Amino acid sequence: MVSFESLPHGESVAAGAADRIVERLAERLGGLATVAAVFGAPVERDGVTVIPVARVRWGLGVRGPVRRGTTEEDARGGGGVLASPVGYIEILRDGRAEFRPIKASFPAWAIPLMVLAGGANAWLLLRGLRALLRS
Q1: Which contiguous run of DSSP H or E holds residue 56?
Q2: In terms of Cα–Cα distance, which of 62, 58, 59 is closest to 19?
Q3: Could you state, in order of their start, the residue ranges of all structural domains in the chain?
């Protein structure tokens, strides 16, 4: 391995490795950044066309080479895509189009957990207040 500290332009060499990783990740994820990622294939039934719509988010992360004692790690990076449905476009027989949002419902299983967490927080708060009043 080459020591970046001994190179006169070590910073540019380290940045070059990170730049190459960013370029590779951008090429791979950039191919997914199309209209098809947000708008699904139209589906027609009984004269009504429905086009699914999603929210799509991309993320990238990169770090340059790192020296840990006598060992040196190469530059690394990663990325990901998250798509979640937000609604659909409904095109009626007469040509009118309307966006219909999908309303996310609150999961019923989370209610008991929230009540339990609230009770635990109240217990801790009262216990702390009692300790303050005693001192």
Answers
A1: strand 48-63
A2: 62
A3: 10-104, 105-135
Tokens 């990901």 sit at which residue? 80
Query: CB under 8 Å to 101, separation ≥6 — which residues?
Result: 86, 87
Largest CA distance in the chain: 76
Ranges of residues in the chain whose predicted pLDDT is under 70: 1-18, 29-33
Q: Where are the alpha helices (DSSP H) in 32-109?
A: 35-38
Residue-level length of the chain: 135
Task: Name the residue among 52, 115, 113 with its Cα closest to residue 86.
Answer: 52
pLDDT of 6: 39
**Cα–Cα distance for residue pair 41/25, rounded to 1 Å:** 26
